[in-house]
Structures are given as C-alpha cells and as structure tokens.
Give the backbone structure.
Amino acid sequence: MASGVKVADQVKEIYNEMKVVKNDAVQEERIRFVLFDIKDGYICVKEIYREKDLSGVDDVFKFVMNLMDPKKCCYWLYDCHFETCESKKEELVFALWAPESANIKCKMQFASSKDSIKKTMLGIKHEMQINDAADFNREDFAHRLGKTVTKLEGHPVCCRH
C-alpha cells in the first residue's frame, strides 16, 4: 500500500553520508542518529545528532531511547556501535517507531510510506519496527542486531539463550 509520500533529497544525502564514513573524516562531525518525519507530503529530516552532540552523553542508546515520543511516529537511522564476541562493529539501523498510543492515521501514514524511504537506503543491514518502549530495551535491541552481541554503545548486554 503506497501512500504517495515522497522522500526529500536531504534524506538521501544524509544516508549516503552515514553509509560512507571516511577514515580521514573529522570524527566529531560524524552523524550518529537522525530522526525523520513526514511533512507536507515528504519524508524529511527532523533532527540530526552528530558525534559532537553526544560528547557528554554516557549512554548513547539510552539517549536515543529517550528521544522517542510516546504519541508520535517517526523513522530513524542510527549509526550503532556494538561489540560481539569476535569484534567491534559499527552498523546502520533503520527503524519505524510506531507507538501504540499514536493516532491511527499517523501510524497508517508511516507504515504505508516505509517502502519509499527504504528504497533510498539500499544496503541497510538492520531494519526494525518498534511499537512500544518495552520493545526498546538494551537486551532486546542487541539481540535484534545479533545473538553474539556483548556490548551496545560500550555498555554490557545480558546474554540470551
């Protein structure tokens, strides 16, 4: 079901910038998290958080979690840093935040427009839909990234079997 919502060019530019992180780039300018909204028939960038914006943040995952409005849907793209038993990883996570308490029209619009934004983000390894803050705890999120994740944003993750 297509919604007719288009994707703003800035969304594509942001994704390309996040996808190709250059080794010589200034780390403080690296984009770590982006919130997207639907406005005037376009999926557009609502907020951008760069590494420098998170410099005083002890727990980036908790910071991201606290940005979720319990009454409003959004898409987000997260440059997630985690560790597995084998190595450290940095991978992009795309998500649709569609809380149960959001109005039905908003949820329908975001759900029916998701394919439009996904088409601009080819190669995303992790895609999630999160409907409740309870689905958004560190352990469940880490498990969705992979069964061998031991740390998420530098904080230990309890193992699940």
